[in-house]
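for ur thesis appendix - Disulfide bond formation protein DsbA. copy paste whatever u need, i formatted it the way the template wanted (i think)
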Amino acid sequence: MAQGGNPQGKKTGKGQGKAARRARQEALARQEAEQAAKERRQQTIIGAVVVALAVILLAVIAFFIAKPLIASKIGKSADSTSTKADPQAYAAVQEVSHKPSKATKEGGFVISKNGYNKPVEGVPTIGLYSDPLCPGCGALNRQIDPMLKAMMNAGQINLEEHFMVGLDSLSTDEYSSRATGAITYVAEHDDDPNQLLDFVSNLFAEGFQPEEGQGYKSVSDQQIKEQALKAGVPQEIADQAFSREYQEWLEALQAYIPTKPELLNVSGSNQIKGKMTTPTITVNGHFFDQNAVPSSSNIKEALLKSIGLSEKQVGKTGELPSIGDKGKPLSVE
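the 3d part is after this line
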């Protein structure tokens, strides 16, 4: 009986041993699996932390790289909190080696009944900032240009014309730069300022000035030249007016002029308030707020009122605006 029971007992012991080994092996496998999972979780956490730190580091680096670029861009467009224009942008204008000798250091052409750079004493100077493609500039020119020329030729005002190139991106062929380049060339080489003003008026004429943006239709140099010839510009000057030789200077001015605090809009929508837009008018260097012109009035009446001259006096030699050459614009309200 005992012998019959021993083999069964030994077999059971072996089975139990195997079961125990399997259990130990399974437990060890579980421990190894749990340890591997734990390590994977740790690696995942470490990897996530590393990635997060890398993103933060890159963001910090990007911020410090972009900060001066952003500040420069804001300064160039319009910083309404600044009381001075961007000195670096101004220096860049002065450093351009090839620029028109008739232009002021601020990039304007001063015109009077006496010609270029010979202002009449004791009368206001009206500054105009415009772009050949700007529709508002065209509308303004068509309204007030005949009056301004009459007053200039009568010695009642001086004009300071600033021509800009900021709307090239709204044409397919850099119209602003080509037209303004031609205007600048004519101003430098033709001694009759009336021919320059007539040329500009021709470019702003309702039947000639192209639309900006999607409605733009290409305008050739030849078409622009025809407007110069129509204004009386000599053929030899008109032929050479498209060399783009003043482009670097014009681009430097485009970066500088919008940083001048005295040219920033003081009213209007949030899109324009605190920014320089075209057309801009100044009177003796002071901003003339076109947005403040009452709806019952018009820009001609308001501008005359701001310098202290009546419409009946326009073009009459000896009848001078009341503000003189140093006064601020009078209220137009």
